[in-house]
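One such shown below:
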Amino acid sequence: MMKKKSISASKASLVFFLCQMISALDVPLDSKLLEELSQPPTITQQSPKDYIVDPRENIVIQCEAKGKPPPSFSWTRNGTHFDIDKDELVTMKPNSGTLVINIMNGGKAEAYEGVYQCTARNERGAAISNNIVIRPSRSPLWTKEKLEPNQVREGDSLVLHCRPPVGLPPPIIFWMDNAFQRLPQSERVSQGLNGDLYFSNVQPEDTREDYICYARFNHTQTIQQKQPISVKVFSTKPVTERPPILLTPTGTTSNKVELRGNVLLLECIAAGLPTPVIRWIKEGGELPANRTFFENFKKTLKIVDVSEADSGNYKCIARNILGSTHHVISVTVKAAPYWITAPRNLVLSPGEDGSLICRANGNPKPSISWLSNGVPIAIAPEDPSRKVDGDTIIFSAVQERSSAVYQCNASNEYGYLLANAFVNVLAEPPRILTPANKLYQVILDSPALIDCAYFGSPKPEIEWFKGVKGSILRGNEYVFHDNGTLEIPVAQKDSSGTYTCVARNELGKIQNEVQLEVKDPTLIIKQPEYKVIQRYGHVSFECIIKHDSTLIPTVIWLKDNDELPDDERFLVGKDNLTIMNVTDKDDGTYTCIVNTTLDSVSASAVLTVVAAPPTPAIIYARPNPPFDLELTGQLERSIELSWIPGDENNSPITSFVIEYEDGLHEPGVWHYQTEVPGSQTTVQLKLSPYVNYSFRVIAVNEIGRSQPSEPSEQYLTKSANPDENPSNVQGIGSEPDNLVITWESLKGFQSNGPGLQYKVSWRQKDVDDEWTSVVVANVSKYIVSGTPTFVPYEIKVQALNDLGYAPEPSEVIGHSGEDLPMVAPGNVQVHVINSTLAKVHWDPVPLKSVRGHLQGYKVYYWKVQSLSRRSKRHIEKKILTFRGNKTFGMLPGLEPYSSYKLNVRVVNGKGEGPASPDKVFKTPEGVPSSPSFLKITNPTLDSLTLEWGSPTHPNGILISYILKFQPINNTHELGPLVEIRIPANESSLILKNLNYSTRYKFYFNAQTSVGSGSQITEEAVTIMDEAGIPRPAVGAGKGYSETLFATSPVMHTVRPTFYKVQPLYPRIRNVTTAAAETYANISWEYEGPDHANFYVEYGVAGSKEDWKKEIVNGSRSFFVLKGLTPGTAYKVRVGAEGLSGFRSSEDVFETGPAMASRQVDIATQGWFIGLMCAVALLILILLIVCFIRRNKGGKYPVKEKEDAHADPEIQPMKEDDGTFGEYRSLESDAEDHKPLKKGSRTPSDRTVKKEDSDDSLVDYGEGVNGQFNEDGSFIGQYSGKKEKEPAEGNESSEAPSPVNAMNSFV
C-alpha cells in the first residue's frame, strides 16, 4: 500500500502539468496540437439545479460541453430518456445540448415541470450535468377576505397581518399607503421577517384607513396588493406605561436550523411603553466579528456566511424603564455537501498509474458514490486497471481503452454535489509549442527567462544547450523550471546567443532554437538638480541619458507624479525641461522618466519658487466676488437680477458671468447662463418652466475670475406643456420580426413640468392603417414585435407631461428588421477581356427577395489551376464588392493561362444571400516573365558559356528564347547587336568565335505565342590574350552566324566554376577646379548610364554650414560657380540626380586675393581734363570760323580735319589690350549666334563680369584645361580629357578637339 502511495505522489507533478495542458487546449497555442489530441467531454455550462422559469417566456435549459471529437448530447426527464424529436415545441440548438421549449407558441410551462439531466458523449466517454429541476414561477392573487377596522387604545401594541399568497419564489413584502408612499418605520413601528407590521405601541398619529400590504413577485414582474386595513386609535387619559413583552417570537425559547454558507436571520420584536430597546448576545461566546450586522432598528440579527462554529444559543433582550424580557434561540448549523478535494481531470500515458480523489464534507457527513460515463460504477463495464476504494479510484497500468469520464456524487439530506473528471490515456511524442527562433531581449544584469513550452505523454524530459552544438547547460548559474523555462538569474553580455531546447520521451525527441540578446541598461548620466528660482524667472532641468544603441528611448517629464500642465511656458527639449516666467504654482517635484521597450529609469528634482525682492509696485489681483444679489420683476419666462460689484483690486472688471443652479433637477450643479460687460450690474434673464432657479455672479478682470458670489434666493417657475419633442428619432429593426424605435430623451429642464412621458406612434407606410400608440416613461427605446420583414414604417415620438402634450412631432421613416436575401443572382456571364482582366455580368435579384437595404453584390472568384503547369494549389478566394444595384464588374489581377471559378451573391444589411452556381472561365496566354536567372561561366579567349532558368511565370507555353548581345568599349559605346533564337527546351549554350579581352552585354528573354516577355541583362568579359595582341575594333573580324554557338548539356557531371562579372556602376571622378577672385570653373568625368542630371554642391572649407547646391543644365560635365568671396578656401563635390547617395569625392580650391585694378580711370587725370578743355576750345574756335566763313559764303574741309585728328577712344583694341580671341559670351549667343570679332572690348577692369556668363566659360567639350591670369582673363583652351601633371604653370594651348575626343572609339 505504501508503494502505491509513493507512485501516486511521484506522478503528482505530471498529473498537474498534463491537466494544465489539456485544459490549455482551449487556447490555440498550437493549432496542429489541437487538431490531433483527443479529449473526453467536459461540461462547460449548465442551468442551475433549482431553475425557476417565467411561464410566459420560452424555457431555455442550458447544456454546453467541449471535447475532441465534439460531443453529442441527449437528455433524460424524470429519470427516463427525453425524446425531443417527438415534441414539436422542443428543439436543441445546433452544436450544443441546450434545449429550447417554445412556450410562446402555445406551450404551457406547467407541462414541462420535472427533473432534467444532460449527457454529453464522444468516443472517449460521457459527462453528465446536475439534475436540473424546472419549476414555473407563480404569483397567485390574494384571497378575498373581509377586514374589520382595528380599534386600538393609545399605548397598546398592534400587529397588522399581511399573510401574502404562497408564490414561487416567495414574494417581497412592503407596506404603502394609497399614494404609493412607503409607510415610515422606526423603533416603534417596523415590518417583521414574515411581512407583518408590528406596533410596539400605537399613537394617535397611527390612525389611518390605508395600511396596504404589497407583494412583489420578481420572476413575473407583478405586484399584488392586499385590501386596505383601517386602524383607529382612541385615547384614554392617562396613558398606562407597560413593561416589554415579545410579540415575536413567542415563549422563552425557540430553535433555528440554518445551512452553512447561508445568511442567518434572527428576529425579536417587543411591545411596551416606552418603546423597548433590543440587545443581542451569544451565550458562552462572542458574536462573530466582521460578519455580524443589525437591521430593522436592531430587531434583526444578521450573520453572513455562517459555519458550524456559529451554532449556539443567541439571546435577545428587550428593555425599557419598567423592566425587561428575553428570548433564547438555539441555532444549529447544518451543511449541505461541500468539496474538500474535488476530482480533477487525469491525463496518463499507457502503462502509467494514477488516481481520482473525491472528498467532501457536510453535516451530516455526505455519502460518496461513483459513476463511469454516467452509469453507476457497480454496473459499468469492467476495467481491470481500475479499483474503487471509497472516495478514491486507483488506476494501475492504464491502456487507451481506460479513457472515460467519471462522476463523483456527494449527497446528504440537504443537497448533493456532482463533479465530472475524465481519465484520458494518451501516447504522444514530444511537441515544443514555443515558436522557433523566437527572440528574447533583456537588460544587462537582469534575469532572463527563455521559454520552452512543451507537451508530450509521457511527460518529456527537457534539456538546454547553448549554441547549435554546445554542451548541456548545468550549474548554479542556470535555473531550470518544471514548465521548461530556462532562467539566467543575472544575464551578462556573453549570455547572448542561440539556445537549444530538447524535449524527449520514449516516443521521440524534438528540439527548438531561440535567440537571446543582452542589451546595455538605460542610464541618466546627468540628473535634474534642486533649483531655487525667483518668481517670474526662468529655470531649466537637465536629463542627459545613455542607452543601448539598438533601443529607442522616450523621455517623459512629470510634475508631482502627474502630467505637465498644458501651458506654453513649459518647453520640453531633447535633454532638458525649461519653465519660462515661473509662478508660485510651478513649485513642486519634477521627474524625468526614460522608457525603452525593456527598462525604465527616472530621476527627480525639487523646484522651490521664492518671491522676488520687494519693490514698491502696485499689487494686481483678481476681483472680489459680487454681493447683495436681488431678484425683481418675476415673470413666468423671465426675471431681473441685480448685484453690487466687489473690489476690483487695481484691475478694472471687464465682465460678469452669470450662472444658475436647478435645485429641482440637478441640485449642486452650476450652469453657464450669460455674460455681460463689466459696466453692467443688472440683467434680464430668460427662464424655462418647471425649474427651481438660483443665481450667482462671477467678476472677471485681466488677472482672472473672482470667487462666485453667494447664491441668490430661489425662484420656482410654473409648469407648462413641453416646448419640444425628442430628437434623433429612428426606427431600425434588430430582428426580422421587430421594429426598434429609439430617440434622445429630453433633459430635466426640458420637461417643463412633472410626469414627463413619451407617446410613441407608428404605422406601416403605404398601407391604409391607423396609428398605433403607446405611452412610456423613463426609457428612450420601444420595440414593436411581430412586424413583417423589412417594411417601411412612419414613426413619431411626442413628449407630454402632467400639463399636456408638446407640439405635434414630425414623422420619420424607419424599417423593420432585415433578413438574409433569399435569391442568388442569375444568368452569370463572364467575358474575358485579356489574359489578366475579365468582366462579369449578372441579372439583378428581385428587390422583394433582398429583404433589406440592398448594399450591393459580392463576386467570389478563385484560381483553380494553371493551364501550363497542371498543378493545383491551395485555393485562395478573392472577393470584390460592387456597391448599389450594379450588375457588372471587372475582375483585375488575373493570372494568364489559368482556369478560374466565380460566383455572385447579393448583400444587404443582414449579410449575404445564397451563392449563384460556380461559373468556370479561362484566361488566355500572356507574355512570360523574365527568365529566373542568367549565368555566364567558363570565359575563354573566344567563348562564353551561358546558363539560364525558365521564367517563374511562363503565362503560357514557351516557344523559344531570344538572346541578343553586343560588345562594349571603354567609353561605353556599343558595337553591332547580334540576335539568336534558342529552342524553349534548352537551358544553356556556348558562344564561340568572340573577341578576346572584350566586354559583352547580353539581353535575354522568353517568348510565348503572344509575344516576348521582359528581358534580363548581364555583362561578361572574355579572357585577355597573354601575348598582348591588339584587340580588334568593335565590329571588326568575322560576322556572327548560326555556326558561332552550340548548345551544351543542361546537367554537368563536374560543376564548372562561375566567374561572376561585376556590373558597371556609375561613378564621377577627376573633379578639377580653376579658380579666380569671385568665381571658379568646375569640371569632372562621368562613367555610367546616359542622360544623368548633375548638380554641384559647395561650401566654405572647414565650416559646418549646410552645402549649397547648384543644378547643372543638361548633361554637360562642367559648371561655373559665381559670387565667391576672394581669398577663401572652398570645398566642392559633384552628384547625379536620382541616384541615391551617389556623389564624387570632395575637392578643395581657393579663390584669388582681391587685386587693385591695373587700369587707371583717365577721366580723373589732370592732363586728360586739360586736353579735353583744349579740344573743346579748338572746336569752338573752328565753329566760330566756320560760321564766319559760311556767312561770307566760303567752305572749310572739316572731314579732312577730323580724319587727321581721330579720337583714340573709338579705335579698335589691339590683341595685347586683353582681347578674348574667338571666345563668345552667352549673351552674344542669344543675340546673333556669332562669335565676337577680334578686338571686341572688355569691361574697363579687364575681367568677365558676373552677368556676362550665366553658366560656363566652356559651352562645348567634356572638360576644362584652362587657368585664369591674375586679372581674371581666361587663357586656357578646350580639351576632351585631362591627365593630372605637376602644376607648374598653364597647360599647353594646343589640345584635341572635344568633338574628336567624344567620337573616338578604341
